[in-house]
Amino acid sequence: MVKKIEKIALFGGTHGNEMTGIYLIKKFLQHPYLLKRSTLQVFPLLSNPKAIKSRVRYTEIDLNRCFAPEDLENLDQVLYEQLLAKTIHQKLLNNQINFVVDLHSTTANMGLTIILSDTNKFHLQLSSYLSLIYPELKVLYYASKEKDKLLRSNTDLGLSIEIGSIAQGILDANLFIKTEKLIYSLLDYLETYNQNKIEEKSHNLVFYEVFERIDYPRDGEDITAMIHPNLQFKDYQPINSGDPLFLTFEGENILYKGLSEVYPVFINEAAYYEKGIAMCLTKRREITVTFH
Amino acid sequence: MVKKIEKIALFGGTHGNEMTGIYLIKKFLQHPYLLKRSTLQVFPLLSNPKAIKSRVRYTEIDLNRCFAPEDLENLDQVLYEQLLAKTIHQKLLNNQINFVVDLHSTTANMGLTIILSDTNKFHLQLSSYLSLIYPELKVLYYASKEKDKLLRSNTDLGLSIEIGSIAQGILDANLFIKTEKLIYSLLDYLETYNQNKIEEKSHNLVFYEVFERIDYPRDGEDITAMIHPNLQFKDYQPINSGDPLFLTFEGENILYKGLSEVYPVFINEAAYYEKGIAMCLTKRREITVTFH
To answer: Do A268 and B172 touch (CB under 8 A)?
Structure first.
């Protein structure tokens, strides 16, 4: 059973070109009362000031891959973001943070998504509560080998909020407002939880579990095909073996050959071209979440 | 009267994170026969290889603002893109290029647009021809004080192709295909022109003329408002005095107070935040283009 969640760190600008989180944090820094709840202390933080200033994802290395315990302990890793990760980690320890929320945005059409590295009961209850309020909300369970490297993994409890599709470097007022509302509901839930007032009722929860990542077809480093038009902006919609994944520059379809009823996400995320990820494949899960 | 157009330079990657043009040029370099026309010699060129490699708009200064004659002549301007501009200009001279096409993309919802710095008869005839083939095509007349600085201004004749909305750093197969088709039609027109086979028929042409650029509301350098949701993705749709332009982070509307029946374009272009441009306002023009 989880104790009370009292100290929450809310991060924006972990990637310096994802403006939604950056401007939400700036808003909260200017109007701290918006995050006030009687049982909570919420710290709004801009993760990567240097990348934010330059409007780039990162300056030397992706900050959101710098938090593995062995990397934090390695004092010879001194790229800017590696240093930054160590100070962020220390700040979380010093302030006894027990819940991290990390705000992101994506060029993929993932709408409003919360991403979990862990399906512990607390996370599932929280997800279930938020899904009831926001029927459009998607829950993504994404526990890759890299999960320890993520900012949200600094605490046992925590999640990322992902909003899209939105280009890097811009704000979309509708997506800004949606993300802001979700944050308030999340804080309301934690408050209710701390007050032992969560209604003890079971709910169905649908979530999507990442099981594979697919790269673009390539010739050396260079890609040789694009996301197929049938798939572009179709995150969380099922595909089956034989459906087109890519369209080569010469106009040929490249088909998916794999499990049926899989749900691609992070389709055509700009930052993932360099990571060798054209999309992540997920399986849809439906479970009953109990609250007692 | 314009002589024959025989040598055409077709540029992609003038901005290194606008992938549509980059991958079209790569395709043409690999399959040069696609650009073959009996009276034309077409040179496909990647403008800024260093920016393309780093997937950024530019490395030191915007290449597409480096072509003013006084800057080209100034041998003390030695930032990477300033040097590059001088060599590109020289290459155009050496090859006796008389028409430049520069491929761009935008996060604004401008669909398929051709941009002219000059409304000479040749440009208008060409635009009229292309508009008949592609009813969705928009023609933008954008002759700012900066027009001499643009790559397309290296020759008297030439234009930019702009496609959107698309995030920086990604490809969208549908937009790639649309741009490719437009290029072929453009070459077909030049070929027909050279062969003196243009049909001598008058056509109506609608174009949009930029007359003003509007910045975001700011506090110092930082913006204090977003593009209003009513306006986001509504390029080329008319607004009137009293319509909302921006939404502050606190939720207040900021209204447009100016001429009525104006048509904003480049709404929320990512690269224009740093240039102090939230949108460009245009007036709609309708003229008759004659061909004799």
So the answer is: yes
Task: Give span(s): CATH 2.20.25.160, chain B.
Answer: 207-289
Whether A102 and A15 have beta carbons less than 8 Å apart is answered as: no
Count of alpha carbons within 13 Å of B20, Cβ hemisphere only? 27
Selected residue of B171, B218, B224 to mutate for chain A interface (largest A Cβ count, 10 A)? B171
Identify the CATH number of the domain defined by range B207-289: 2.20.25.160
Residue limits of CATH 2.20.25.160 in chain A: 210-289
Q: What is the pLDDT of residues B117-162, one digit of tens each?
A: 999 999 999 999 999 999 999 999 999 888 899 999 999 999 999 9
Name the residue among B168, B173, B226 with its Cβ closest to that of A171: B226
Give the total residue count for chain B.
Answer: 292
SS3 of B180-224: HHHHHHHHHHHHHHHCCCCCCCCEEEEEEEEEEEECCCEECCEEC
With CB atoms and an 8 Å threshold, state whether A26 touches B176: no
Q: B286 vs chain A: nearest CA distance in angstroms? A: 32
Residue A292: CB atoms within 10 Å: 6
Q: What is the pTM of this model?
A: 0.96
Biggest CA pair distance of chain A: 61
Alpha-carbon B180 to chain mean position: 15
Contacts of B271 in chain A (CB under 8 A): 169
The 10s digit of each residue's pLDDT in A228-247 is 999 999 999 999 999 999 99
Q: pLDDT by residue (tens digit) across A87-138?
A: 999 999 999 999 999 999 999 999 999 999 999 999 999 999 999 999 999 9
Pinpoint the residues of chain A covered by CATH 3.40.630.10. Answer: 7-206
C-alpha B115/C-alpha B143 separation (Å) is 9
Q: What are phi and psi of B64, to 5 degrees?
A: -80, 20
What are the helix (H) ranges across B134-288? 173-194
Q: Per the CATH hierarchy, to which homologous superfamily does domain B7-205 belong?
A: Zn peptidases (3.40.630.10)
Say which of A173, A268, A274 has its CB closest to residue B228: A173
**CB spacing of B232 vs A172 below 8 angstroms:** yes
CATH 3.40.630.10 residue window(s) in chain B: 7-205
The fold of A210-289 is N-terminal domain of TfIIb (2.20.25)
- Per CATH, domain A7-206 is 3.10.450.330: no
